[in-house]
Amino acid sequence: MFKIFETKSTEEHLSDKYQYLMHKAYKLALTDKEESDRLNARAKKILMELKRMQYDKID
């Protein structure tokens, strides 16, 4: 019913953060290219971390 006491996994938290940064970078791309690039770089690091976590589970 309510998800008050359920905690997110690290992957879910990073995925949400990645989506937030990409959305924000997209909106800023028209007005502030440098800030958009910085946000894209941060999002790319988070994406690499997510991929690394998934590959560790496979092994």
Can you characterise this structure?
- The chain has 59 residues and is an all-alpha fold.
- It has one domain (10-58).
- Helices cover 76% and strands 0% of the residues.
- The longest helix has 26 residues, at 33-58.
- It is flat, with a radius of gyration of 14 Å.
- The N and C termini lie far apart (35 Å).
Low-confidence stretches: none
Shape: flat
> What does the radius of gyration come to?
14 Å
Give the percentage of residues in beta strands.
under 5%
Total strand segments: 0
The biggest sheet amounts to: none
Q: Give the distance, in angstroms, between the N- and C-terminal Cα atoms.
A: 35 Å
- Count structural domains: 1
- Tally of helical runs: 2
Which series of helices and strands comes N to C? HH
Q: Portion of residues in helices?
A: over 70%
Instruction: Give the integer mean of the pLDDT values.
Output: 89
Coarse structural class = mainly alpha
Supply database-style keywords:
59 residues; mainly alpha; 2 helices
